[in-house]
Amino acid sequence: MKALRYHGARDIRHEPMDDPALESDRDAIVRMDACSICGSDLHIYHGHGFSEDIGFCVGHEAVGEVVEVGRAVSRVKVGDKVMVPAAVGCGACRSCLAGNVLNCESGLGSCYGLSARLQGVQAEAFRVPAADMNAVPIPEGVSGDQALMMTDALATAWFGARNADIRPGSAVAVIGLGPIGLMAVDSAFVMGAHVVYAIDPIAERRALAAEAGAIALHPDAALETIREATKGRKLDCVVEVVGSDATVDLALRLVARRGTVSVIGVQQSRRYAFPLERAFAAGLTFRIGTCSVPEELPALFPLVQFGRLRPERYISHRMPLSQGSEAYRLFDSREAGALKMVLAPD
What we know:
Blueprint: E1 2-6, E2 12-16, E3 28-36, H1 41-45, E4 62-69, E5 81-84, E6 87-88, H2 94-97, E7 110-111, E8 125-128, H3 131-134, E9 136-137, H4 144-150, H5 153-163, E10 171-175, H6 179-190, E11 195-199, H7 203-211, E12 215-217, H8 219-229, E13 235-240, H9 245-254, E14 255-263, H10 276-282, E15 285-288, H11 293-305, E16 315-320, H12 324-333, E17 340-344
Parallel strand pairs: 10-11, 10-13, 11-12, 13-14, 14-15, 16-17
Antiparallel strand pairs: 1-2, 3-4, 3-8, 3-17, 4-5, 5-9, 6-7
């Protein structure tokens, strides 16, 4: 088969790779219908990945069709259309059964496409471990595009907004308007936000947020504009979706006393000088971390089925898998309005 494989900084190649094979009776093999590039994939693309491996298949967002199952698989069968959440668990422990694969008690929690330990899904086919949990049948009323967005991006956006304690009437800011940030804007409104400020240096992305009903601001103007608009009180909730020191600092400056900051941007520095004294005096709640997709899906399925959330509208490009290297380049450079890049088999 063909797959996108990592060979070093900015070196993603479409090349042959061994076909996936069952390694356990609980595994399944899925033929990829569509996959997408996540912002966190760019950390690997830039050469600052999560392992020292090279030659492994990248990617952790995909939908496809089950083509083979192990003898112990009972909930999915050959022919099922499934979505594959980015992170996997053992599917048998207490935490996994509650949807929290990040706390897998068997020590089998992992994510596709970070190393050779679990090959990625930007390939013509891939192996799904513990398939009864980690291959999720696509529900009626959910399109393939919508399911693909829910494998990570929409789930992470919803998680970030939920962690920000957004309630009816809240005043909210979202910092960073890539696909996840834009979906966080939508999520904030669904949760009842009264006003959402959407902050990003790229004008085209601000325009998309404004179309969704947000007040779009350039980062340079955000703090002063929000101070004036709120008469100095600032905001109840802030969702940070970038992961840089500067944007985390901006989030902490935008939040009101007893407000909440939720950081879901993948961190780009090893140390951050957290303003502990200021946070203590203001009584802030600060949450940071990654999403366990299965935990968020029960809330998201009906919201997508009934049109309250439409994550597919942030798909900007559709390209064949063979053009994966160019797709990564476009996404990294933010050229041609690049947002969500969707790849399909040639």
